[in-house]
Design brief:
five-stranded antiparallel sheet, 18 helices
Length: about 1100
């Protein structure tokens, strides 16, 4: 307000050409309200002077004033009105006494002095000393109204599990710094923005779909059919990141939501095992910072957590697990599944035997774990206690602020509130759940035994497998195996109830086979004469692509040693894979699966093939003439067979000049009811289903995904680029890949053009279309057609990684800005075939984010032009002229930005958490709702009005962020409050590298770096124009909640009937009905008796019987 006061007063005096000095005019105006010339004025007197006595107007240039050699003429435009908030900001700047009076002489001197001396009067809100990243109370808001400069580095004591990160940040920067330079609020800052920023967002998001499958770092099989799979339905369970996923192919084909999610983990999921009933799943995870490694057992139908088994912190992670029992059993009694075996990632690879549920009802502890929560953590108490408001009286937006409460109620979006209100577990659904609490020992689980598995640097043990042909409850004779780097061990329960381990041998001493890594193992039945129940053998997959048959001595007793008897040629070795110790081995046979008929085995190798094998009876004799025992393995496929029925090669069609990429099989399961159909997961993070019509169910990325881009016009189209050299175009509505292209280089950035340009290279007729720019890790820039992904132009001006790309807005200069790791921004003229314009030089760090403005007003030489703002790794905010590449030093506080993806600036200063070093937030994106619009007829920027914005506050929308803690957060935009409240969503297990709103704001797309996953989120309450879509979301969520409630109710065991005593004869007894049914029958008998007596008796007798029957009913 102070800067506007100065500018307005100078324009007024320049236009009116007063004879008196400016200082005298102001002094005389204040003397009219201070006749005794005390020198102090109240707030009301100040407003009276400014609005009623001075009556200042804003002026604009008169028509014809721009003619050459003409003097600048001004004419009145509109009256300058000052509200109480702006006046209060002046009082805060220049000081006031305890009676609220300000010495107006100080204000007059500051307003009339030279600009050089005015720097000493600049209002600065220094949050470095206060340890804040935004506005905290009404005083801060008043300073923003007074055009204060804000410095927001933040120094905060980190919790114990962040000490390592905090120490590195402190040693590197000295403090936890965000912006090097200060930021400024926009002129005429609206205090309602600060009030809204301090409240929780009304809008909400739900995870709608996940693209990708964890097929690279998994050590054992992690893909299975569920019990819902029938002759016509295919449903599978797997994991990606730290999210368990249940996918139904039939729902996907019908256009319905096809995935359900389990959110019970807080770090990378390492392994997955299916219960013999195929209804329950166990998933084990890494230890999170400050937490414990643990296993979750959950239901695939409801995605409710049934049990959680915590391990010791020294165990590091749970790298393998399996249920006891027989997954191919035909009866529930023969399935088993009471025990769970887990292997941890300590140096001893400790094996744990759990009775994961001792209660007869598996759902006794069923818990729905939400995928989101409120934040920040330190404010949860206030949020819960104050009804989403902060409790401090000095905090703006508190309950004590009645005006703020009326202008911005604390309720959720109506649809969100209705959904959460109908949830069966409101506290869980409300999201007051941040970190998992340690498991409390109770009577529902029991750790039966634990012992060392195999010594070595983890992971040395790759997996465990239970023998389905022996007891499944842990009694004498129960057996399982563990396998991994150059070893396999079997464990059998002895007569004393102890697990006895024995290492298998690679054949007789004289003719032993070469010792290799064992990548997969399953038990198979022994088929020979006089085979006893429980006789079995083992099939293993080796790194060289061969399959080994291991047999024990029969009968098999505790301590018996399995021996490798024979090796079979099944697969090619495949590509080399680097292990954790640096050694390289071939991919080999990663997965083996015994079909439900117990006579057919499937094997998946690194050559991309799935082969079928037949188990047959062995009729051979040993050298001594005794019949051999064990089983015979015969291949069913023929050499060269690739399309079935006994050998399938999973290779997608590729471009004519592109080298065929062969995937490595990492997951495999056969359909429980169909004889041929199976599913397979690959190291390309894809999931295939092979039947009569093989197809890819889930598409993924083979390498880290660093960037995504939303189509500017098509609301359901977005693109991603990954380090596997591929650019993929996705359809968010159909939830599938539209097309992909191989770039020939590692991709690091991607962007769509905001408007259509001619594709001159491949279309000589000059057809229009959207362009797509892709930047590489080595500085190459490729321009593609946004629809067909056909290449248009290749540019290679930079030698470093291209980290950011942005096209100019619609009807703009048609310039592409490219940020590079060489600290420069390269500018290209799109309409002239991407002709080089200039370099922007001045950054001290890698350019991370770029945004284009709408036409600006200041400085005058750039009036009506669009400019750039950019952030870098050294936390600088710089502005650039895209026509010349020169830096703009003028303050751009009033510039309106077409997009906001920069992580630094006044509008996003509240996103930074405590103990942050300025690199924790990787990406942000502002919604299209509430964005400013440029009116070309009026040649001015129009801020969206209240009815066009969220919560009826002009210029307000939503902001999503992606950070290094694997979280996606939703804020109220602008985010100017210190520790601004947010909704936090989990699912990714790695640093989330990029996030974008799609064109209609109804979908948000986020990409994880190391988890290689793409998460598609559905928003509700962001796009206010799409009420019908919100209603459809409401209907879908209500149906889901109702279904979950019904399923839970069906799982609750019904109480047994209570039996009464014998009757008088001593021969008869039966159950006692519940009270409700007894009362109903009693009332029925009473009414019947009353009606009968009324028909047979007189009036007096009728009244007597009625009173007597009423007393009987009351009793």
């Amino acid at each position: 307000m102070y800067r506007h006061s100065l500018a307005c007063f100078q324009e007024c005096t320049r236009a009116q050409a007063p004879a008196a000095l400016q200082r005298d005019i102001l002094r005389q105006a204040f003397w009219k309200v201070d006749p005794h010339r005390v020198g102090d004025v109240s707030l009301q007197q100040f407003l009276q002077v400014w609005q009623n006595i001075l009556e200042l107007f804003e002026y604009k240039e008169a028509p014809g004033a721009n003619r050459p050699r003409s003097k600048k003429a001004l004419q009145p435009w509109k009256r300058r009105i000052v509200d109480r908030n702006a006046a209060a900001a002046v009082f805060v700047k220049f000081g006031f006494d305890r009676d609220g009076l300000m010495p107006y002489v100080v204000f007059i001197n500051a307003l009339t002095e030279t600009p050089a001396r005015l720097l000493g009067h600049e209002l600065i809100l220094d949050n470095a000393e206060r340890g804040r990243n935004g506005l905290f109370d009404e005083v801060d808001v008043a300073m923003c109204v007074g055009d204060a400069k804000i410095l927001y580095p933040k120094v905060t004591k980190a919790p114990f599990y962040m000490k390592a990160i905090s120490l590195v940040s402190f040693l590197k920067h000295g403090v936890y710094v965000q912006s090097k330079s200060g930021v400024f609020p926009a002129s005429g800052f609206d205090p309602r923005i600060a009030v809204r920023s301090a409240m929780l967002p009304k809008a909400h998001m739900w995870l709608e779909h996940v693209y990708g499958y964890a097929g690279i770092r998994n050590l054992s099989n992690n893909l299975f059919y569920t019990h819902n799979s029938t002759e016509t339905i295919s449903e599978v369970v797997y994991f990606t990141g730290m999210t368990g996923i249940v996918y139904c192919k039939n729902d996907h084909d019908e256009g319905k939501p096809s995935q359900r999610f389990f959110f019970g983990h807080d770090n990378d999921i390492e392994c997955l095992a299916i219960h013999p009933s195929r209804r329950f799943v166990a998933t084990g995870q890494q230890r999170a910072p400050g937490g414990l490694p643990y296993v979750c057992i959950w239901d695939v139908d409801t995605c409710d957590q049934l049990q959680r088994l915590d391990h010791c912190a020294d165990d590091r992670s749970v790298i393998a697990c399996c249920f006891s029992g027989n997954i191919n059993a035909t009866t529930e009694k023969g399935m088993g599944g009471d025990l769970l075996v887990t292997v941890t990632g300590d140096n001893k690879h400790t094996i744990h035997i759990w009775r994961w549920m001792t209660d007869d009802n598996e759902y006794v502890k069923a818990t729905c774990i939400p995928g989101w929560f409120y934040g920040p953590d330190k404010k949860l108490g206030d949020l819960e206690a104050q009804g989403l408001f902060y409790g401090s009286k000095r905090r703006f937006g508190s309950k004590s602020d009645g005006a703020a409460q009326d202008s911005h109620p604390s309720s959720d979006h109506p649809v969100v509130g209705h959904i959460l209100g109908s949830n069966a577990e409101p506290r869980a659904a409300a999201g007051f759940h941040t970190r998992h609490k340690p498991m409390v020992e109770d009577a529902t689980w029991e750790l039966l035994d634990e012992f060392p598995g195999f010594n070595g640097t983890p992971p040395v043990v790759y997996g465990v497998s239970w023998n389905p042909f022996r007891p499944h409850d842990g009694r004498k004779g129960s057996e399982f195996l563990s396998y991994g780097v150059k070893h396999m061990k079997t464990w059998i329960v002895s007569d004393q109830g102890q697990w006895i381990g024995s290492s298998a041998t690679f054949g007789p001493t004289k003719s032993a086979f070469q010792v290799q890594n064992i990548l997969s193992a399953i038990y198979v039945p022994a088929i020979h004469d006089r085979a006893a129940p429980g006789d079995s053998g083992i099939l293993t997959g080796f790194a060289d692509g061969k399959i080994g048959l291991w047999l024990p001595p029969y009968p098999t007793r505790p301590g018996s040693t399995y021996q490798l008897k024979k090796r079979f040629n099944g697969h090619e070795p495949g590509p080399l894979v680097t292990l954790n110790d640096g050694t390289q081995v071939h991919g080999g046979v990663r997965v083996l699966k015994l079909r439900a008929n117990r006579r057919t085995v499937l094997s998946g190798g690194a050559d991309g093939c799935v082969c079928s094998w037949q188990l047959e009876k062995i009729n051979e004799q040993a050298e001594d003439g005794a019949p051999k025992r064990g089983v015979k393995l015969m291949s069913l496929f023929e050499d060269g067979e690739e399309t079935g029925p006994n050998r399938f090669k999973l290779v997608q069609p590729s471009a004519p000049l592109e080298k065929e990429s062969v995937p490595m099989l990492r997951g495999l399961d056969s359909h429980p009811l169909k004889p041929v159909e199976f599913i397979a997961g690959t190291d390309g993070c894809d999931i295939w289903e092979v039947d009569k019509d093989p197809r890819v169910l889930i598409e993924g990325n083979q390498a880290d995904v660093y960037c995504c881009a939303a189509h500017p016009h098509e609301a359901n189209v977005f693109a991603t680029a990954s380090e596997c050299n591929r650019v993929i175009l996705w359809d968010a509505k159909k939830r599938e890949m539209l097309r992909s292209a191989s770039m020939g280089f590692v991709c690091r950035s991607i962007a769509f053009s905001e408007e259509e340009f001619p594709g001159r290279c491949w279309n000589p007729s000059g057809g229009q279309g959207y362009h797509m720019a892709v930047g590489s890790k080595r500085g190459r820039l490729a321009i593609l057609d946004g629809d067909t992904l056909q290449p248009l132009i290749q540019i290679h001006d930079s030698k470093e990684c291209i980290s950011e790309i942005k096209y100019s807005p619609v009807k703009g200069p048609g310039i592409l800005a490219v940020g590079s790791n060489d600290l420069k921004i390269y500018l290209y003229n799109v309409r002239k075939g991407y002709q080089f314009i200039a370099r922007c030089i001045g950054h001290s760090g890698t350019v991370e984010h770029i945004d284009w403005s709408l036409p600006i007003e200041d400085p005058l030489e750039l009036k009506g032009k669009m400019i750039l703002q950019s952030n870098d790794t050294s936390r600088e905010i710089l502005f650039w002229d895209p026509q010349t590449g020169k830096q703009i030093t003028a303050n751009q506080r009033d510039a309106s930005w077409n997009t906001w993806t920069c992580t630094l600036g006044f509008d996003v200063m509240g996103i930074w958490p405590d103990f942050s070093d300025g690199t924790d937030v990787n990406a942000v994106c502002r919604s299209h709702q509430g964005k400013p619009v440029y009116n070309r007829k009026m040649q001015q920027v129009r801020i969206s009005s209240g009815d066009e914005c969220m919560d009826d506050v002009p210029g307000c929308g939503a902001l999503v962020t992606a950070d290094d803690f694997s979280f996606v957060k939703l804020f109220n935009y602008p985010v100017v409050a210190d520790d601004a409240p947010f909704r936090c969503y989990r699912g990714h297990s790695s640093h989330v590298m990029s996030i974008r709103f799609l064109a209609d704001d109804r979908t948000v797309v986020s990409v994880g770096g190391f988890d290689r996953a793409i998460f598609q989120w559905r928003t509700c309450g962001v796009n206010s124009e799409d009420a019908a879509e919100d209603e459809s979301v409401l209907d879908g969520m209500q149906w889901a909640v109702k279904r979950r409630q019904e399923e839970k109710a069906s799982l609750i065991p019904k109480p047994l009937s209570q039996w009464g005593a014998l009757d008088g004869t001593g021969k008869n007894f039966g159950p006692i009905d519940d009270i409700g049914k007894s009362l109903k029958r009693m009332r029925s008998r009473t009414v019947t008796l009353t009606s009968q007596m009324s028909r047979a008796s007189s009036g007096g007798l009728r009244q007597s019987i009625s009173r007597r029957s009423s007393r009987n009913f009351s009793s």
